[in-house]
Amino acid sequence: MRVSLPWWAGLWCFWMLLQGSPSLGSALLGVLVAWLIARWLAPEASGGARLRVLPLLRLLGRVAWDIVASNLAMISMVLLRSNRLRPRWVEVSLDLPDDPRRVVLAAIVSLTPGTLSVDLDAESRCLLVHALDCGDEDALASTIKSRYESLLLEVFA
Length: 157
Prior knowledge:
Strands 1-3-2 form a three-stranded antiparallel sheet, with helices on one face. It has 157 residues and is an alpha+beta fold. Strand 2 (115-121) and strand 3 form a beta hairpin. The chain is globular and about 55 Å long. It has helices at 5-18, 24-46, 53-79, 99-111, 137-155, and strands at 88-93, 115-121, 126-131. It folds into two domains: 5-46, no CATH class; 53-155, no CATH class.
C-alpha cells in the first residue's frame, strides 16, 4: 500500500501545529504518527479518489473568505442588536457520492458562522442546516451547493 505525500505531509503539519513548542523529537514522532495514520486511513478517507490540489486550494480560499465575511456579518448583527433575525431550517439535497465527502461539506457549513450542520441523512442524501439569519431557504441551499459542493466534487475527482 502506497502512502500519498499530500496525506502524510498534511498530517505531519497538523501534528506540528498541535505541539506547544516544536522540537526535533516531536517532529520525528510526528513523522512516524503521520506515516502510520496516512497508511491506515488514506484509502478509506478518500474513497479511492485522487485529491486535486488546485481545486483544494480554491476551496480552502473560498471557505476562509466566507468565514471572515460571516464573522463580520455576525459582528454587525450583535453590535446593531438586530431583532430582525430570520432563523430557518434548510434541507440541502447533496450530489456528493459518499459519506466522507458529505461529512467534509457538513464541517465546512458548521465552520461558517451563522450556519450549523445538524443532520446528515445517508439514505436521502440530505444535509439539514440551521441558519441564524436566512431570508430564502432555496437560495441558501443553492449557495451551499454552488460554493462548496461543486468544488468538493472537483477536489476529489
